[in-house]
Amino acid sequence: MSLLQVRDLNVCYGESQVLWDLNLDVAAGELVALVGANGAGKTTLLKALTGLLRPRSGTLAFDGRPLPAEAEQRVRRGIAMVPEGRRLFAGLSIAENLRLGAYVRDDRAAVERDLERVFGFFPELAPMRGRLAGDLSGGQQQMCAIGRALMSAPRLLLVDEMSLGLAPVVVDRLAATLREINRSDGLTILVVEQDVELALEMSDSAYILETGRLAASGPSATLRERADIRAAFLGA
User: Fold this and answer.
1) Between helices 108-121 and 168-185, what is the axis angle to 10°?
2) pLDDT per residue over 74-126, tens digit each?
């Protein structure tokens, strides 16, 4: 059974439809990429998954049960998102931002252990834990944003446009860390990414959206070798 199951999903902004009859499955322990050009509907899907947008029709199931309507209840069910643009609390410290990610938890000792574990994934943040998030570089902010989502102890991590505005060396480091977390913890991850080559390299399987409709899906290695996808997205 899929951990996340999307069936016949239609999502609109007012009268403008953005997603059309979308079907998608994410298996437990899998790292899945959702890719496509800007405006394809990728972020719209994440908003529907997190409860920030109500679909016009279709079903969303998590671990075999319908998702609750409220965004907070979806976090409690085990869904966390790293939003596009990081959206940290600039006037709070790194440690304060991370602890806010655990606001739905009451296992305080485990929260503190997870805090140190996040610093293990991103050791450059540890000596700066008291520094304001607004004073960090873009890459450091993205590390903090990923760490904040991990602090909710999610079963499904959604990552929206991780590479946006970052240097390639930083992006490669973040991608490697997400892959490490996926493999070591078995954390299920759905990465939404405009950089198709990066997404296909780091993921097990992928879905490709074009103007709100599913254009292709399958194992990432297979999609990378398809001539039509290489011509459309990889410049080959």
Assistant:
1) 130
2) 999 999 999 988 889 999 999 999 999 999 998 989 999 999 999 999 999 99
Task: Report the C-alpha gap between 218 and 227 in whole angstroms.
Answer: 14
> What distance in Å separates the CA atoms of residue 62 and residue 156, rounded to the nearest whole number?
9
Distance CA 19, CA 55 (A): 9
**Does the reported pTM lie above 0.90?**
yes
Give the CA angle between residues 82, 215, 71 to the nearest 5°.
30
Instruction: Sort 130 into a burial class: Cβ within 10 Å, 0-12 / 13-18 / 19+.
Output: exposed
CA 152 to chain centre: 14
Residue 165: closest CA among 142, 191, 149: 142
Name the residue among 2, 158, 133 with its Cα closest to residue 71: 158
| DSSP designation for 133 | G
Segment (H or E) for 207: strand 205-210
Q: How much of the chain is in helix, strand and coil states, percent to nearest 5?
A: 40, 25, 30
Listed residue (6, 58, 61, 4) closest to 31, CA to CA: 4
The pair of three-digit structure tokens given for residue 96, joined into one six-digit string? 């304060």
* Alpha carbon distance 199, 31 (integer Å): 10
Residue 204: DSSP 8-state: S
Would you say 204 and 212 are in contact if contact means Cβ atoms under 8 Å apart?
A: no
Structure tokens at 21: 């009859």
